[in-house]
Specification:
Layout (H helix, E strand, L loop, with lengths): L2 H4 L21 H10 L7 H4 L7 H9 L3 H11 L3 H7 L22 H12 L14 E5 L3 H12 L3 E5 L8 H4 L8 H12 L4 E3 L10 H7 L2 E4 L19 E3 H10 L10 E5 L3 H12 L4 E5 L11 H9 L3 E3 L2 E9 L2 E11 L2 E11 L2 E4 L7 H4 L27 E3 L2 H4 L4 H24 L1
Helix pairs in contact: 2-4, 4-5, 4-7, 5-7, 6-7, 8-17
The chain binds flavin-adenine dinucleotide and iron/sulfur cluster.
Length: 442
């Protein structure tokens, strides 16, 4: 393990260390058993439900024959982030949800866990062929999954790829956002290093728009890829929100995963505001960290939550309480310290002035979404955003209104999954390659 990944060890005091893997690795015999169950379906539905169209039956067949390097190569050819996707993908609604075994009411093939087995034991940068250097270069804004997948693909296609990342760690939300029982910081950093070993350069602590301008990137590079993800946590704009004891969800998760100084001392009760995947992640994480009472306040009924049911159900089983049709109208403080939230009833999701109760709490986590980075995107000449702040691109090439600027990931789709970001980045890289080679031939 490299020094960077090693510096996030099991005994460095980070709260992330309290979590165990949701799905521990398969043993070789378990992997062989599961791989042998795959029917190698013709026109396999599982491939169609993978956003990066990994040839799932083929990589599984290679596991069954003991060819783990070949299996990893099959995965990497479609998805350079196959290692993190194996752990973080919501397989319950993607590949595994279409496995033909479900039609017979039988357990689907555990595709995610088999992919992890192949990637953990078989992946290596030397599996991938690199084309001759072209002398062309591409700047990438951000070093999250979208930019990493784009940069790795560009490097394999022979182009110089340089990522500019404002944080001290590359990896985006794979490092700082994804629940630690799916992917730990050291695992995410190992994947970043894998991409670097393909020949990619990453400049951390460099904010585009501040340390380097859009014009500089356009002047110094042949093309630019925008993969800045989403912005900071959205605010409620209610009384009592500003001050200690109230924190945005991604801010809280980042601290829990990466900062040994981030503690939950004195917190016995917590209220999480929101009904999406981030809200349920935070609620489950707080519960697993031993917080006695964890409640989620959500404006509508459970059925309307955007969070996946396969995350909500276990969360409720673990003891998270759901307060439905409720909006937090005020954070109640006593001498500055948070003591409760005043909750009002909602009517069709809209807060009313009917106070339901004041729920006592020590901590409030606001998980109502993230801002968009419109201002950053629009620093690039010709790049536009839609009325929801998402960068507008061609759906096939991921080209923006500026023919030399491409974009993908959360900044374009408004917030989906890692696998969608990987798909976008790779598709954009192929379009950038076509553009650069077209220019060369012209
Ligand atoms: C709490 C949470 C949990 C999630 N859990 C899952 C999950 O379990 N499974 C799953 O598949 N997906 C999950 N997702 C979604 C997934 O993390 C994102 O879809 C994915 O990370 C998007 O990748 P991206 O590269 O577009 O953006 P990001 O991962 O956000 O990366 C963008 C990078 O750009 C950098 N950046 C931004 N602005 C600048 C600038 N001006 N200059 C330089 N750098 C900049 C940022 O610091 C960041 O590192 C989760 C998201 C959240 C918020
Ligand atoms: S649908 Fe299931 S059984 Fe068929 S190829 Fe995919 S994983 Fe194998």
């Amino acid at each position: 393990m490299s020094a960077r990944a090693q510096s996030f060890g099991r005994d460095d005091g980070r709260l992330e260390n309290h979590f165990e893997d949701k799905y521990p690795p398969l043993s070789p015999s378990e992997a062989a058993f599961e791989a042998a169950r795959c029917l190698y379906c013709f026109d396999a539905p599982c491939i169609k439900s993978c956003p990066t169209a990994i040839d799932i039956p083929t990589f599984i067949r290679k596991i069954a024959t003991g060819n783990l390097r070949g299996s990893a190569r099959t995965i990497l050819r479609s998805n350079l982030l196959g290692a993190s996707c194996a752990r973080v993908c919501p397989v319950e609604v993607l590949c595994e949800s279409t496995c033909v075994y479900l039609e017979q009411d039988r357990e689907p093939i555990p595709i995610g866990r088999l992919q992890r087995h192949a990637m953990d034991l078989g992946a290596s940068p030397d599996l991938l062929t690199k084309r001759e250097p072209t002398g062309r270069s591409v700047a990438l804004v951000g070093a999250g999954p979208a930019s990493l997948a784009c940069a790795g693909t560009l490097a394999l296609l022979g182009h110089r790829a340089v990522l500019f990342e404002r944080e001290s760690l590359a990896g985006g939300l794979n490092v700082s956002g994804v629940a630690p029982y799916k992917l730990r910081v050291d695992g995410a950093l190992r994947e970043v290093e894998f991409i670097e070993r393909l020949g990619v350069e990453i400049r951390t602590r460099t904010t585009v728009g501040k340390d380097v301008t859009a014009e500089q990137l356009l002047d110094d590079y042949d093309a630019v890829f925008l993969g800045p993800g989403l912005g900071g946590d959205s605010h409620l704009g209610i009384e009592g929100e500003d001050g200690p004891g109230v924190i945005g969800a991604t801010h809280w998760i980042r601290g829990m995963k990466t900062d040994p100084g981030h503690k939950l001392d004195g917190v016995r009760r917590a209220v999480v505001i929101g009904g999406g995947n981030t809200a349920i992640d935070v609620a489950r994480e707080l519960k697993a960290l031993g917080i006695h009472t964890v409640s989620m306040a959500y404006r509508r009924r459970r059925g309307a939550m955007s969070a996946y049911d396969h995350e909500v159900k276990p969360g409720l089983d673990e003891g998270v309480a759901l307060i439905e049709e409720a909006a937090v109208a005020e954070i109640v403080r006593d001498h500055g310290r948070v003591t409760g939230v005043r909750v009002v009833d909602t009517d069709d999701g809209v807060p009313t002035d009917r106070t339901r109760a004041v729920f006592p709490t020590d901590l409030v986590v606001v998980a109502i979404g993230q801002a968009k980075l419109r201002a950053l995107a629009e620093q690039f000449d010709g790049v536009t955003c839609d009325d929801r702040g998402r960068i507008v691109v061609d759906p096939d090439t991921f080209a923006t209104g500026n023919p030399r600027v491409f974009a993908g990931g959360d900044a374009v789709n408004g917030g989906k999954e890692v696998v969608n970001a990987a798909h976008d980045g790779q598709a954009a890289a192929r379009a950038i390659d076509a553009m650069l080679r077209g220019e060369q031939d012209a």
